[in-house]
Design the sequence.
């Protein structure tokens, strides 16, 4: 069982009534609920869950919180620029030490993800409320545990290729969109000792994080991203 | 400029009038034409082209032919089982030595491709004549040179995920299908010193290899798969 | 806790007195001991262990044994050719379904490993009893859990590059040899739903599997290779 | 033939007489010589070579120079911190657009390389003047063209694992060091449309860039890193 911190920008939900209606307590609250949900199939995980938002002091991510975090989830969209460089440095450092990181939806443009990828993380998009079908292209992956061959989301924002990220270590999902596009929507990376998973679903205008399959993926991803012990990383001058 | 051998099963075209109408001289002849086609944009490549078919002696691939081949293209479908183990051994050996291999469409189930991948190379399919759009997911790749952001084929057979192959070294194309599926339709591998490219388009009932973009991909892939010199592979007991 | 089958050729130990002195009950027995060893640091794992050898009926690997096996370890050397194609087919099939496979030392030349890799799996070697130091190049990997920065083995057979295998998905160890060579000595692959780990140490003339660090790696590798559930692999014609 | 820019910090050679004796015109001049050297085997390449140093205005890398550069080589050591963020931004942007980047020796700690990798790029080191042998682990790679199975450098600084970089797309060289360490000394990456090669040899106190094999690697790497055309990268809102 992991110490999980869910970071949410938490602006849309306070600024826009329609979004507030979808996520009345904030996207982070819905994700927290998803991560501790048993879903009738598996037992509810016994994670220790913390939430943090942009407008908290130090964005809710002071050094001691990150130090105690096994897995950090990141949802941001309209205020990426307001995230301080000091917090980005700290998150990067903790990921390289082993903290898992799950980047959600428009978090592809977060400073944290761009820092760890080294690329623009650009993509194509269209807000059209069309259908997305996420195909499991790697059925043996633990993040796909308990899923069917695909996940269907009736109304989403479209993200299309090319997605300017390094070739994933492992591609778990590829999305089909009603409007004619595809997208690598579940991408695994390791940087330093940390596991990173980018997962596309999550537009703020639709109740994506209420979907049972999406919630299962989030739980699986937390399990996958939880650090293992490994060997010491000894750098510096050798005698 | 490369020594290219195009291998075609060459049964459908001789057995079925409708297919014969699409490829009157065999799929291999159309591909040979594509590889030496200048297309008004680049000069016509000056490859030395040879063709070989299943019913030739030794399937047209005796040792000396393979020895002189820089890049082998492979199209097969209904008679994979008739390809002799000796020829499969020889092709594998030459690929590991550096010969490029381009596996087309239903060649995913060829003995040669399965031997080199180590997996079943299974997939889902449906012969529905629907539209396929191949998205370039790796715009910096030489196999995508001169393409637009996607290739559209109005009538194709559908191939769907999961595609049981090792994670590609580099994924160049991902297909969107009108019927709701996706497929990793351009996959690069290296095995030994040889470069391998799997390229999905090519159903025998549609004139896929007449498409200008598909033809450009074939030419690009031959250039990419042509062996470089490298260093010697010295195996055995060391003094 | 996993159902583990340890496969050993079990010829050297019965044919050669000096080797019998190192592994009196066979290499498989020593590995079995390693896998259930608590080592004073972690609790002893509660695996269900089975052993199988070349001269058992069906090499000890009938369909029902493989069906019940989560992780198969493979040690072979002088009699690779005697392993039947039927057993190789079955092992490959089970790996693609999800069974973990740990290939040890001279098992690089086994039919099973060559089938799954698609390459010759050749390398250089010298039986000189020199020192090997295995460096952890991926300290965040679970197979390195609990190790120091390197493992030192005072007397080993040398294996040198080039090692003709596909580029590993993840390289965990690289060996330094006293005589001047290097070798990628811990290589992770996935094929189908199965996890494969090649681990170099294990020459039959030295008590390599008595080494505490090597034993820890074997235990870690069994944990890593144990199948997860994943999603169903649905192949065939779609409606 | 490519437009090549060689960037050198160019401080050691002006500050230290012993280093000046090794590289009297600066490391960049010796590398420029290597890149246009025919070596009796191949014809001398016809690259257009430019050099740039830290103390030039804008470090010698104004926008128009980078715009015209196909491949940039980077050597830096003691003054990484003095490289301006604006130049780092510009180099990153150009690499993602397709410019090749070859990072040499202590350049592993440059801002440019760390930016593109997303990791600390840390390693172990020891200045002991011991022997290094670089083994070709990927004999089929164009960067290994014309080499023997290994390159031996009699006196070098040691770099040891773990090297905190993302798993390379392709590992070309692994070094053996007399003192007992190993290092992944030739690592290929792609970021955006750009090819990146990290090559370890090059300590300023030894005439490493006078070595014929090292010079051959530099020439091969420039050829490998030269951009290909690719497809357009179209980002933004789709209609």
Sequence:
């Amino acid at each position: 069982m992991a110490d999980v911190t869910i970071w949410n920008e938490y602006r849309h939900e306070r600024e826009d009534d329609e979004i507030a209606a979808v996520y009345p307590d904030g996207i982070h609250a819905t994700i927290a609920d998803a991560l501790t949900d048993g879903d009738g199939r598996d037992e509810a995980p016994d994670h220790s869950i913390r939430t943090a938002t942009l407008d908290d002091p130090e964005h809710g991510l002071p050094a001691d919180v990150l130090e105690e975090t096994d897995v950090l989830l990141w949802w941001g969209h309209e205020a990426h620029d307001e995230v301080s460089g000091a917090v980005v440095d700290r998150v990067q450092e903790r990921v390289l030490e082993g903290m898992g990181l799950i980047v959600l939806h428009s978090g592809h443009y977060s400073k944290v993800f761009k820092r760890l990828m080294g690329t623009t993380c650009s993509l194509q998009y269209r807000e059209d409320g069309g259908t997305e079908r996420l195909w499991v292209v790697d059925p043996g992956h633990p993040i796909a545990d308990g899923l069917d061959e695909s996940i269907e989301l009736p109304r989403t924002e479209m993200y299309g290729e090319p997605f300017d990220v390094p070739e994933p270590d492992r591609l778990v999902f590829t999305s089909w969109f009603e409007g004619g596009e595809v997208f690598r929507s579940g991408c695994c990376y390791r940087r330093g000792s940390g596991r990173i998973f980018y997962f596309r679903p999550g537009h703020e205008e639709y109740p994506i994080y209420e979907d049972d399959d999406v919630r299962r993926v989030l739980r699986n991803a937390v399990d996958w991203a939880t650090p293992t012990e490994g060997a010491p990383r000894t750098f510096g001058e050798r005698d």
